[in-house]
Amino acid sequence: MEPSARAALERARRTRDVELRVIALRALAWTHRVRLETDTARALLDDAVETARRHRLTEVEGAARVSRAYVRQELGDLAGARRDLDRALRDPAPGVGGPERRRAVGRALLARSVLDHNAGRLVDAERGYRRVLDSPDLQVGTAVVAGNNLAMVLSERAAYTDALRAVEQAVRLAQDAGPAMLAPALQTRAWIKVRAGRLGSGMRDFERASAVYSEAGIPLGEYFTEYADAMTDLRLLPEAVAAAGRAEDEFDRLGLPLLALEAGLRRARVLLLSGDLDGAARAGAALRRAAEKQRRDRWRDQAVLVEVEAVFLGGAADSDQATEVRKVASRLVRAGDLSAAVDAHVLAGRLADARGEVAHGLESYTEAARLAVDGAVPVRVKGRIAAARAALLRSDAEGAVRQCDTGLRDLAVHRDSLPTVELRALASGHGAELGAIGLEVLHRSSTPGRVLAWMERTRALALAGRLPVQAPVTAPPVATVDENRVLSSDWHDVARASRTRGTPWSLARLRAGLEGRVLVELGGHSGRLVAVVVDGPRSRIVELGPEQDVADHLRALVFALRRLANPRGAAAADAARVSAELRLDALSRALVSPLGVGTDDELVVVPVGVLHGVPWSALHAGPVSLAPSASLWRRTADWARDDRTGQVLVAGPDLVGAREEVAALRRTYPAAQVLDARDATSDAVVRALEGADIAHLACHGSLRADSPMFSSISLADGRLTVQELHAAGAAPRRLVLASCHSGADVAFAGDEVLGFVSSLLSRGTAGVVASIAAVPDVEVVDLMLALHRRLAAGQTMARALHGARGEIDRDTPAGFVNWCTFSAHGAA
Prior knowledge:
alpha/beta
């Protein structure tokens, strides 16, 4: 293309053909842009625009401005790009002029919409994409890109039905436009389906997009980029890091440093999300150097934010970095990058706040709050965090609580529109700091009831999500068998929500439901733990210790229990036992002793954060039941009265003692339905669980701590994930999970918790017994038999487990592990 462009430029000079000169300059600039020689491209386009303007060649000037706008975006000059596009669209109106003029206007509208999209102005972007698609004489390529991008914007605001409709139209148009158009459209459809909960269909679209790329010989960098985004949405973070790394390598191999830089930033952000602060800081620093070498100011600023945030979270940021972030924030504001500018100002405020620089902190927080007003929900929530932090710096405690309250309300509307538990849990993470700020203020100055009500505003809300308004709620949507497992989950959510959401939060109603039990709900703020204790008519706030101390003891305890479950000699077992008992004593003194409860009191414990992994039954002498929230525990008390009959006993494959365990339980439940290692397929187990009074699963369990909805149990035909079980809506009244790690629900930011137990409780199961760690397979049988004898006699899960644990020989390593690790959940 370059020789032709140069020849045309030479001919224009000889003939003094000004219009040809502008066209040739544009073409030559584009060849330099493709080679990522962006500064040269910008200079050529400056010449083209000025030449056309001087000779009043309106149409070719507009085309040159559109080209320059794309280059300006790549250079980080978003404000300059917007000026070019506004000028290109100034006259005539989109429907005026001949077909070529209307097509040119459509391309300019598309470019401006992309600019709005990249800057986080989603409302403006959506409006622009719709105008493009409504334009006459639209070229197929423009229509595909506009439809594809519109679908992404709609997905960002959880309008998944409309998003899928838009992307389906883009895919249809792209079928005849070649693989370069079809593959990205398929990727977008895959990404939206994954976000909408249609995991199986979405993954098939990803595979098809990969095949289209490969068959056409198109590099797979873009594919891996989109795949990384989908894995991030599912919180499959190791897969996301790997996919982003492959995209980075692919772009490097092809000599595309800008795209490699963007993929590297994606990988660095996922590292930050996953808690790998050292990895994120190193990646951010390397990307900063690469961006400086390429003279990519916008990307350098993004890398700086990742690097400094990682360093700050690791406790090592300095005053120079604080100054640098303030400068980055100012540049992003000038560039018109709204979302990134809010992030930068919030980070600058945190840095100043941590160093006691009140004036700088107030300035940064206030600017973040101002900029966030018109952003998408996550951006607006960050603005509320900034406004609350600013109020605290002004010593306006009630003002901080008001900001937190407004932000949590805004977030609740957004979260309830999301279709899957994972997305709702991740959305709650945006409000984690709002919840912590409110708790920090209220626990010092408010009543226990108000503090408890505030805690409940951020507990297990993803488990009670609603369907988007546009989705049907009268029956499960029609879909393939695979997709129905996922899609039907939302219908079950709505059906159950209609029975449970009508009753507002009431401390009096909660007290009545406790029936003599003592509620202990825990929360955290500023690195410290606090508890609200509801004991009959009395309630109180109890200050506990630093959360990090508890986390350290818990980590050492889990390590000791793992050694005891598989001891390598008597000496190693003795050492592990001593360590475990020391850690249990430390945890009991930190978490239970300060509460002032009686040794025989039955506790209902609502943990927070890492405390979901604590073996609470081993810390208190009386019965203990756990729940993700007090509200959810109260709901399980209602469900415990369901009149169901029938038992289900499942023996999974390759588990030593599973068949013997189930055979022994047959003596307690002679009429039970039994599924052995050959018959226990996923479908068979799901069908059997639905409607059962009590079920017992003796299966291998596998924990995915990074994405708990992909934790699983092993069955005859492979693994049954939490996501599949949740989607199917199978909810026996009571369930015993005699599987390793089955009770190890994972806490998300925002006081959400996901895993087997929380999923089952949210679906209608009233009581669960499960283990937080690996259990000795054969030795657990006696505990299970003792447990079920008591359940069959009518005891609750908490009381039956308490009694069964009392029969365990704790002198043996296996007995001690089983005594420690099993917990009861729910009221049944």
